[in-house]
Amino acid sequence: MNQVKATVVATTVLPGSRYRSQGRTISHISLLLLKCPEIAREAKPGQFVTIKCGETLLPRPFSVHWVQGDNIAILFSVWEGGQGTTWLASRKAKDKIDVLGPLGNGFSIMPEAKNLLLIAGGIGIAPLAFLAQKAIENNYRVTLLEGGHSSGQVYPKNLLPPVINTAVATENGSAGKKGRVTDLIPEYINGADQIFSCGPMSMYKDMCRQSGTLLKGKPTQVSLEVVMGCGRGICYGCTVKTKQGLKEVCTDGPVFELNDVLWDELGL
Ligand SMILES: Cc1cc2nc3c(=O)[nH]c(=O)nc-3n(C[C@H](O)[C@H](O)[C@H](O)COP(=O)(O)OP(=O)(O)OC[C@H]3O[C@@H](n4cnc5c(N)ncnc54)[C@H](O)[C@@H]3O)c2cc1C
Ligand code: FES
Hints:
- The protein is mostly beta strands.
- It has helices spanning 37-42, 83-89, 125-137, 185-188, 201-209; strands spanning 2-13, 19-21, 24-35, 48-51, 60-63, 66-68, 71-79, 96-103, 115-121, 141-148, 165-170, 177-178, 194-198, 220-223, 239-242, 245-248, 255-257.
- It folds into two domains: 2-103, Translation factors (Elongation Factor Tu (Ef-tu), domain 3, Beta Barrel), CATH 2.40.30; 115-266, Rossmann fold.
- The protein is built from five helices and 17 strands.
- A hairpin with a 2-residue loop joins β15 (239-242) and β16.
- The longest helix has 13 residues, at 125-137.
- The model has no long low-confidence stretch (mean pLDDT 93).
């Protein structure tokens, strides 16, 4: 784990329009490229960093989106009225920001797996793009299912490794299949050896309820995005109940086996 002053290399606003999520508005999606060699060297897919966002008391957690040489990328939703993400989105090239990481335990691919199925709900593409990048480098076959509200929220294909298979579902049908990303699963589940997902907690709860049928009982890891306090195992603000007892998302996770989490106890 490193506490560094990272240099902003570039910021990009991804195409797409404002939309509502969890009762609030996301004004846009931003891609931030940060030079921080110490973190870039150590980061593994599914791990995250925390960033001190201006005057906010608590640092904000963000998944490592991909790594390129000395740089890491962060892909994030900018919430209207969200103090941290609004501050972060207004950084400019050459600004310095305080970053701590890499943190947590990321995804782990089973030795016998060859075909990986990645399921991204909305901004859940953030950690999965890094997993896809590493998996392709290590000769796994990768299929990515991606879901969003509309075509404006679909992640640009040119930013993904060219050899992965992709399929898209949008709730208004403006790109790909009309519906939710989980509606795509039946078409792709048979060829998958292991499943990795990042998306809203309600999606995981549904996936767990149907894991025998929809996921055919295949091993599935999910990345939990809970509201965090310290991000480093001190405040117990991120505790979840699992079959193995209480776990801290920031240090034991954020990646867990889908069937280990006691979803009904999370108050979703
Ligand atoms: C391990 C982890 C990895 C994450 N990775 C990403 C990522 O790669 N990209 C990304 O866009 N977001 C990610 N998040 C969520 C991100 O941390 C929050 O969106 C951000 O902290 C909001 O800050 P804010 O001050 O702008 O908004 P706030 O005003 O604090 O909140 C805005 C909205 O976000 C919700 N929220 C606040 N904090 C979190 C949180 N920690 N997790 C989930 N929802 C939250 C609030 O309930 C509210 O609806 C991640 C969260 C965790 C725990
Ligand atoms: S956020 Fe403080 S213990 Fe996890």
